[in-house]
Specification:
6 helices, 234 residues, Spore Coat Polysaccharide Biosynthesis Protein SpsA, Chain A, single chain
Length: 234
């Protein structure tokens, strides 16, 4: 059974109650639930949360919340992997074993159903792949990054790259933090996500936005509003 799992804990610190705060008139979490449902990729869309209010919002958006996540997996230090593994193991114990598992973050309001469709298609097209995840290219060559040393002076991270032309440096990418697709066994075995057996599905820079501050939130709302008004720009 193809299953989407959306982690959404209640204890977000930087933006309190971020997962259910209204984003352009809809709870943030609802955007991810709707993208998963509308993609047609998944047989089930499940939200993993430790919070009763988040569980209610998730159900209203159309997701299932068949269990509450243990508090030990809802602190500031628990990574995504253990949360997804817990959900898979719970489903297996209920005789509902998932096959393809998609982890979709609750704070991905710019995610499109077609992104998930393309990711699932990539896995089918190449059986050697273990995971497909969303990524985005850096807008500036990271090889020419600068830093401040202990004395506060500016130094290049890679001095040998400073004289080089941008086009002569390899393109670099970062995790877009929107979704990760793979088989249940590979999740449970702790297989590395960022490795040669994974495929980075590139998303355009204007649809990638971390939402950790109020400024991030405002920018993401403005971006989504613009994209809704001008769909061809997606």
């Amino acid at each position: 059974m193809k299953t989407a799992i959306i982690p959404a804990r209640g204890g977000s610190k930087r933006i309190p109650r971020k997962n259910i705060r209204l984003f352009n008139g809809k709870p943030m979490l609802a955007w991810s639930v709707e993208a998963a449902l509308q993609s047609g990729v998944f047989d089930r869309v499940i939200v993993s949360t430790d919070d009763d209010e988040i569980a209610d919002v998730a159900r209203q958006a159309g997701a299932e919340v068949p269990f509450l996540r243990p508090k030990t997996l809802a602190d500031d230090f628990t990574g995504t992997g253990p949360v997804i593994t817990h959900a898979i193991q719970w489903l297996r114990e209920q005789q509902q074993p998932p096959s393809l598992v998609g982890c979709i973050y609750a704070t991905a309001p710019l995610l499109l159903p077609s992104d998930l469709q393309q990711a699932a298609a990539a896995l089918v097209a190449n059986p050697a792949l273990k995971f497909v995840f969303s990524g985005c290219r850096f807008s500036f060559p990271i090889q020419r990054a600068l830093y401040r040393n202990a004395q506060g002076q500016i130094e290049p991270v890679q001095p040998e790259s400073i004289p080089k032309r941008s086009q002569d440096l390899p393109e670099t990418f970062h995790d877009a933090g929107q979704f990760y697709l793979g088989q249940a066994d590979d999740w449970c075995n702790g297989l590395a996500m960022f490795a040669p057996h994974s495929f980075l599905q590139e998303l355009p820079q204007h649809r990638v936005q971390d939402i950790d501050t109020e400024a991030d939130w405002l920018r993401a709302e403005l971006l989504q509003t613009l994209l809704t008004q001008t769909p061809r720009s997606r």
